[in-house]
Amino acid sequence: MRYLLTHLDSAWALTLVHLRLSLVPLVLGLMIAVPLGAAVQRTTVLRRLTTVTASIIFTIPSLALFVVLPLIIPTRILDEANVIVALTLYTTALLVRAVPEALDAVPAQVRDAATAVGYRPLTQLVKVELPLAIPILVASLRVVAVTNISMVSVGSVIGIGGLGTWFTEGYQADKSDQIIAGIIAIFVLAVVIDSLILLLGRAITPWVRATRAPRLKLRAAQ
């Protein structure tokens, strides 16, 4: 803990790198997974194919993907783009399975009502189904965000920056306090990001709290 307190400048700089490498893939993966997941939701064959492909991608070890990517895309092994591309693939693989499940959870009567009002499929998806699917998507985003934060730490093994650098430097110099400081910093970062996503999800879904409050009062009365 003392190492962390005496190296706050370094911790802040490494945290910014860690955040960039973790959150950029989160945003990119979400932008890819939502339209892709929505497109395959009602097509059984495409949905199964997408699920299988996503499962295969996620089984590839992150370190191996960091090393192999420079052979596929025109980057150097120490380029941050390798981590961003790899984590974008992992993020997409996780979220593309969650999106159809979240849309499946939308009640059929809600879809029927939207159709009766005159909403076309795309309008219904954007204005009705996706907003109602947000709570499930937020839960998946929280998992992916924490997963990305932990995976970025692996990148330090091949020289990519981030808080994982304290792991490798501490191990090489036999400094247990530096290693512990890295663990604490990454843990705190994961908790903070997870909490922020949770709060953001609650802020953009006020109707969830509005419908939950009467239920809680009813249970309390019983």
UniProtKB/TrEMBL annotation:
Keywords: Membrane, Transmembrane, Transmembrane helix, Transport. It holds the Pfam family BPD_transp_1. It comes from the Bacteria. GO terms for cellular component: plasma membrane. Signal peptide: none annotated. One of its GO terms (biological process) is glycine betaine transport. The chain crosses the membrane at residues 20-40, 52-75, 143-167, 179-200. InterPro entries: ABC_transp_perm/SBD, MetI-like, MetI-like_sf. It is found in: Cell membrane; Membrane. It is a multi-pass membrane protein. The keyword Transferase does not apply. Belongs to the binding-protein-dependent transport system permease family. This is ABC transporter permease. It comes from Mycolicibacterium confluentis.
